[in-house]
Structures are given as C-alpha cells and as structure tokens.
Amino acid sequence: MGTVSEGPLILWFRRDLRLDDQPMLAQAVATGQPLLAVFILDPETEAIGAAALWRLGLALQSFAQRLAALGSRLILRRGKALAVLEALIAETGAVGVHWSRLYDPAAQARDRGVKAALRARGVAAVSHGGHLLHEPWQVAAGHGGPYRVYTPFWQAVKGRDPGAALPAPAGMRAPARWPASAALADWRMDRAMARGAAVVAGWQTVGEAAAMARLERFVAGPIGAYASARDRPDLPGTSRLSENLTYGEIGVRRVWHAAMRAWHEGSAGAEAFLKEVVWREFAYHLLHHTPHIVERNWRADWDGFPWRADNQDAERWRRGLTGEPFVDAAMREMWVTGTMHNRARMIAASYLTKHLLTDWRVGLAWFADCLTDWDPAANAMGWQWVAGSGPDAAPWFRIFNPAAQAAKFDPFGSYRQRFIAELSPSPGPEALAWFATVPRGWGLDPAAPYPAPMIALAAGRARALAAYGAGAAG
C-alpha cells in the first residue's frame, strides 16, 4: 500500500451543500487526506438573482453548521475562482481541488478554465457527478445524439440505475492549520431582497436535515395522490423539494430511490413524481447539449417571431396587477414565498408570452430574480416550453386560458383568495404579506379595488394565434 499524502485536498462546494449522497466528499474522505471545505463567492455566483443569492446564503449558514458538527469548517472566500483557489493552494500546500459539476454555460466555462490552469501547474483538478442522476452525455438517443423530446428520454432513463445513494461520512480529517475565512454576514447576500427577506424567510425549508425530513413526509403521504393533486395550487400536493435540490441540500439519487420504493410498493402517484424528477434531468440534458437555451430560442425557426420587448403590460404582470386572478395570485405567491406552484408557473408564463406577446426572456429574467428555487436549466426549459420556442411537440396552439385553468385547478377560489387581498372581505396573512414585500414606491393599498383585466382573454388568444398563423414561428 502507498502512503497517504499529507497535502490537503480542497473541496470546492457550490450547489452541493450536503454530506449525504455526496460523491465528491465520499471519494475525498476515502483518500485519508486532510480536507478543506471551501465556498467561493465568485462573479458567476454573485450574478444570480436576488432571491436565489439570499437563499444560497441561508444554505451556506446551515451547511457550515453541519460541517462544524463533524469537527470541520467551511472556509469562505470571495473573488475569481481561480485566483482564490491558487491563493489557498499557496497558503495550505493543497495538492488537489475537487468539485461537483455544474452545467450552465457560465459555470462550465469557469470550471474548464480552472481545471486547465490547475493541471498545468501540477495540481490535481477533479470534477464529480452528484447534481444529476446521470451525466447528460451518458444518456444518448438511438442515433447517438442527444434527446430532443421528453417521452423517449423518460423511457430511456426510467429503468436505468443511478447507483446507490452514499451515506454521509462519519468524519473528515482536519488540516494541520485552518486558513482564514470571510464572515458570511459581511457578504450581505440579502442586500437586494430589501424588506422582502423577513417575509420570504418564513417560507424556506433550509438545510440537509430539513430536506430529508421533507422527503420523508412526502413519501409517507402526499406522494400517493400526486398524479392529480400536483396540479392543484390550493392543495399541499407537491414535494416542494425543488428548493433543496437547487442548492444540493438533498441528493437527487436519495429522492429517486425513495420514490422508486414507493412506486414498487404500489403508490398511485409515485410514477408521476418520478417523471417530474426526470423532467429536471431532461432540462439539464438540453442545457448541456444545447446551451443556447438559456438566452436564445431553442428552435431557430422562432427567431423571426415578433416578440414584444419589455413593456408596461409586462410591468403590470411582474407586479401581480394584470386583472387575471390566477395569474396575479401566482405572481404574488412568488413575492411572498419565494416559490410558485408549477401549474401556476405555466399559467403565468403563458399569459405573458401569448396573451401579452412578450418575449419569454423578460419572464425568465424575472423568475430568476424572484425564485428561491431558481434552477438555470428548469427555468430556461420551462419558459421556452410554454412560449412555444422550446421542446414542445405542439407549441403554437397551446394557449392556457387563466379563467378556465382556475376553474379546473382552483375550483373553490382558495388559492386566488389566499394571495389576493382585494378578492376577500377578510384577507388572510399571505394576501396581506404581499403588501409588506413589494417596494413602497408602488403605492399599493389592500383596500384599493382589484384592477380590471388588461386584455380580454378571447382577444388575447386570437391575437396570439394570428401572430403564429402569420408564419413568424415557422
């Protein structure tokens, strides 16, 4: 047997803030070397939206406590990733840097540069899986290329073993000396949230232990009715694990195996839930193979479509003042809770892109700024799927009618009344909380009348169909 190197390994944590089912950590612990857990607030990370950056700060605080319980520490540094890593290597004598892969274009460009530079100077640079069930290049269609349609992708993935979820390590070997760390509070990751942070904080389920408990509760009960209840924003029918998967507070393999056990045990809704997990995989599959999805029409034949740039109608949409209750409830839910029910996301996105003919990138940017469960792949694919420019087999005529959708999926109006104070003689706390989160400069008053619709739904649909029928969308 060879001797174990005394040089430490740097574990560069990003969106993998957990100990359980953590391939990078498991491999590093197995070396027997001292380990330095590091988080870098680099320009790529600071560029994410206000709500996501704030929620990331909460995740870091929780993860630091988790590491401390193992006798380790989370070292915080700020700056360009390569420069920070090189400084840490010089300070500590580290012989390797490990990280879990990310797949958005900015992260991939950064990571390729870091890996090349470190290897050029003789430092081991190793990337690991862990954010997905399968790496995007591991799932190929029959012709050898990537999938472009979801259903065949699901068929290819549903029976594929992602491997067992790895247990959390019992300990981590500490270095001889700990390098200096920034103080998390000094970074003010909440600065762009303003007064909204105090309200949205009450809706977050932060950290690895809370995420595992959330999964257990879901599999023990709501998963059984998931196939139908998942479309009802008035019911607690979803797992809400997107928040935790976003920051890696729970491993997706842990989620997959729990749901797969429920399916094998006869849970009626487990297959539908597994399909949603694979939707997340499909989004990353597209992101990796067609990275332009985050900024350009996925279908090039949509490049000539006459999207409206940002406009006053879009501003009313952002403010939850469209006069369409289902749309406004969705937008206000996001202000108050930091998340939005998936059915409501589709309705809100369809209204902006089709009834208001506004560029999907306007909505994508707003969701990126406001969602605490923002995910670069899911956000891009979701917006393009609804807009019609993305991976949808029948995009142009799918125009959701918010009133019809509300009647079907919010039949008692409880979701709309929950978040729209103007619709209730006695508004509840969530409806009133919206007024405590939005900018004071908007001058909003819960006693003011609810606004009239911006456009008649039939007229909006007709206008959208006319635009599509003109051939601008191919």
List the helices and strands and how they pair.
Layout: E1 9-13, H1 23-30, E2 35-41, H2 43-46, H3 50-69, E3 74-78, H4 81-92, E4 96-100, H5 105-120, E5 124-128, H6 150-157, H7 196-200, H8 208-220, H9 226-229, H10 242-246, H11 252-264, H12 270-289, H13 312-318, H14 325-337, H15 342-355, H16 360-370, H17 376-387, H18 402-409, H19 414-419, H20 429-437, H21 457-472
Parallel strand pairs: 1-2, 1-4, 2-3, 4-5
Helix pairs in contact: 6-12, 11-12, 12-17, 14-15, 14-20, 15-17, 16-17
Descriptive key words:
474 residues, mainly alpha, Rossmann fold, Serine Threonine Protein Phosphatase 5, Tetratricopeptide repeat, DNA Cyclobutane Dipyrimidine Photolyase, subunit A, domain 3, five-stranded parallel beta sheet, 5 strands, 47% helix, 6% strand
Compact summary:
With 474 residues, this protein is mainly alpha-helical.
Explain the overall architecture.
It contains 21 helices and five strands. It is mainly alpha-helical. Helix 6 packs across helix 12, helix 14 crosses helix 15 and helix 15 packs across helix 17. It folds into three domains: 122 residues, Rossmann fold (3-Layer(aba) Sandwich); 116 residues, Serine Threonine Protein Phosphatase 5, Tetratricopeptide repeat, CATH 1.25.40; 173 residues, Orthogonal Bundle (DNA Cyclobutane Dipyrimidine Photolyase, subunit A, domain 3), CATH 1.10.579. Strands 3-2-1-4-5 form a five-stranded parallel beta sheet, with helices on both faces.
